[in-house]
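A reminder before we start the practical. When you read a complex entry, don't treat the lines as separate problems. The point of joint prediction is that each chain is placed relative to the others, so the output describes one connected object in space. Small molecules and nucleic acid strands, if listed, are placed in the same frame. In the example below there are two entries. Take a minute to note the order of the lines before looking further.
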Amino acid sequence: MRATAAEETQSGTLVLLCLASWIIPGAGHLWLGRRAKGLIFLVALPLMFAIGVAIRGRLFPFELSDPLVGLAALADLGIGAVYFIASSLGYGGGDVRAVTYEYGNAFLIVAGLLNMLVVIDAYDVALGRK
Amino acid sequence: MQSHLLLMAIFAFFVSLVFAVIAKDEPRDQLRFGSLMFGGFLASAVVLGWLMYPFPL
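Here is the predicted structure of the whole assembly.
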């Protein structure tokens, strides 16, 4: 059965919503009118990512030969535009000798994973499940 | 900033904040859920730290 025009429009909007929510943390919630939640995500997640970079965490490269490094890279990418801004400015090189290196990695990886959860939450809100 | 305890507390704060905001809608519920989660993070870290104490690497 073919999807109706309204359903196609809705699915297109949902894709845009999820993309916006991924690229700018909290943008999906702001779009849906949940301002307080959106603003908290907009501040907290990039700040967590910035702390990870500041304490010398590493933005992992996409190395398929090492699955764990590849997965960490995917998780890092979850934060969206902030990832590309940081890497294009040369941040996120990491310093394995730093005491805080592993903490930095945890901050960077978890910030990305939390933003993925935020994207899923925005999707649920848009569908009326929440 | 090299204090492990401080970094762990900051990490726990951010994770608790985001989970509380995702899971609950009312500010009062968010505060309650977030505080419980934050306390749980800190308490479990201290307990696990002491449990690992007899096993030096």
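Discuss with your neighbour: The first helix of chain B runs from residue 4 to 23. What might explain this?
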